Amino acid sequence: MMKRSLLAIVFLALPLLAQNTVRVDCSANAQGDVRKPVIVEVTVTNSGPEPIQGLAVVRFNPKVSSADRRQGGMLDVQELRQPAMVGPGEKKTLNFSTPFESTSSFKGRKGSFRASNITPTGEVTVEFTGRFDAAP
Q: Which of 40, 39, 37 is nearest to 26 (CA)?
């Protein structure tokens, strides 16, 4: 009886696993002189047989104290969104111009970067993640 239950669960879950055909990768870049704007690249890959449409989203979370966070502004969690359509088997890269700046150059930074224009705190680590919200 236990084997039948496990098989039933596996067969019921297979269609759900097959629908997971979108992959999202994101990295931050800052290039230039003195204060550099931070750009986040989000690459959405569709490995499924159908085109997908939706919103690419980057979420930023500055790591500041609760006292700083009460002041608002760029200290709060923020999200940037861009609409995207990705064909079957395609990869699409979207560039997000962020409100953050850096005093150093970097390319391909994953997960976090240091922003220098968050006041009054000064240089702050900003964590970021990307996702793709498919349209229903």
A: 40
The DSSP string of 95-117 is: EEEEEEEESS-EEEE-SEEEEEE
pLDDT in tens, 33-76: 667 899 999 999 999 999 999 999 999 999 877 666 666 666 78
What are phi and psi for residue 134, nearest 5 degrees?
A: -70, 140
Q: Any alpha helices (H) in 1-136, and if so which ranges?
A: 2-18, 66-69
Residue ranges making up the domain that contains 65: 22-134
- Domain count within the chain: 1
pLDDT band at 94 (very low <50, low <70, confident <90, very high): very high
